[in-house]
Amino acid sequence: MTKEVFSGHMADDDFAEILASEQNRLRRVIRSVVLCGATSVDILQRANLIAWEKRTDFEEGTNFRRWINAIVRYEMLAHRRDQARKKETMLSRETEELLFVTDDGCEGDLETEAQALRDCLKALREQDRSLLKERYSGEETLRAYAEKTGRSEAGLRVTLHRLRQALKKCVESRMSKEHTS
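Predicted structure:
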């Protein structure tokens, strides 16, 4: 079997191999953002299809992980847009950013960051964890949750913003401690 090289670009089988090597990492990232297994599979499949269609745009020797991350992020944003139309919920953009910002090519960093996020969530009050769980994995809207709990929707939005900020700060702190250890 001969490898077909596109002027300055990698051969199809080499591209397929590098794309395949990223699948587990991408699956974990998408799953941690989307929370629904079937939906995360759909997003990954669409991202793979787009990556394959755009394979001639990727230049060998450049950062493949950054390139594929951008495709996945756009697919997740498209999914977010579609879900917003349907009034379904996902993680906030800030939380999604946490998943990609420190992704410098070290798979261990992603695992370390995910563990840091889990630890930071455990450190929250039960009431705050319940609010986050309901907001990002529950079926009802924030308005319905506010009515059910007797809190104002605006107050819940402020609380959610503060919780996201606290989680971001906590994760960053734990990650910086991890990198200095």
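Summary: The chain is about 75% helix and 0% strand.
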